[in-house]
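Tip: read the tokens left to right.
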């Protein structure tokens, strides 16, 4: 009889604890709804948040996008010609922004992309056009001035074509191109080099260092290796006797 009242007394306490747990769960859900990342990631210092905003702004400027409002951005299409302009603009200059092009890289662009042909367009013509389109107080040209300079060179390079057709031809030469790094050149086949590196034309001791396919023999082509196998040279059934013994065993 004494066990029944004790059970009755414990039941209200159990209901009370369950109600408290439910209230705690509801409070946690409310806090989580207000702060979704409250339990997943710690709050970052204000200085790091400022650095993130600065890096995002710089990447936005470099990618050609502009902020159109809170949490939105308006992409600006970058053409292949403008992309090549930016690549040459920052070539060799770590502080360059890619928004303007100085005379040295302008000449390099015309040379690497084939605008200079040595006949209709020379390096002197490129320098003259650069000085003509740039502002007097500036040593660089903008992208718009760059297009104007190309248009003038195009009319001189393709005299038999109209202005728009000539510009289109010059633009094709530059679109998608990157600066050629000094010291990195493609191998050019030369008759003299080919003759000197062809093993089939070697004579004397040099001929013995290569086999019929032109592959080097290694040490066997440099020193006389003594054959101590016991077989005479030219014997075609070398090793067959050992194989027969192994089968019989």
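Filled-in amino acids:
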């Amino acid at each position: 009889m004494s066990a029944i009242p004790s059970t009755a007394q414990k039941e209200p306490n159990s209901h009370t604890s369950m109600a408290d747990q439910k209230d705690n769960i509801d409070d946690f859900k409310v806090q989580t709804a207000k702060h979704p990342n409250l339990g997943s990631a710690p709050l970052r210092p204000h200085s790091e948040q400022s650095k993130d905003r600065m890096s995002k702004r710089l990447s936005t400027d470099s990618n050609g996008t502009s902020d159109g409002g809170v949490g939105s951005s308006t992409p600006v299409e970058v053409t292949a010609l403008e992309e090549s302009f930016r690549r040459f603009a920052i070539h060799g200059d770590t502080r360059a922004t890619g928004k303007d092009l100085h005379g040295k890289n302008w000449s390099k662009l015309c040379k690497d992309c084939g605008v200079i042909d040595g006949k209709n367009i020379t390096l002197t013509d490129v320098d003259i056009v650069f000085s003509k389109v740039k502002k007097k107080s500036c040593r660089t040209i903008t992208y718009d001035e760059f297009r104007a300079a190309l248009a003038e060179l195009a009319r001189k390079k393709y005299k038999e074509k109209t202005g728009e057709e000539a510009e289109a031809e010059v633009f094709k030469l530059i679109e998608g191109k990157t600066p050629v790094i000094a010291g990195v050149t493609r191998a050019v086949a030369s008759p003299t080099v080919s003759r000197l590196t062809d093993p089939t034309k070697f004579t004397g001791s040099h001929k013995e260092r290569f086999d019929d396919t032109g592959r080097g023999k290694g040490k066997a082509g440099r020193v006389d290796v003594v054959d101590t196998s016991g077989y005479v040279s030219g014997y075609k059934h070398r090793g067959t006797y050992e194989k027969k013994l192994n089968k019989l065993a």
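Confidence is low (pLDDT under 50) at residues 1-12, 53-74. The two ends are 94 Å apart (CA to CA).
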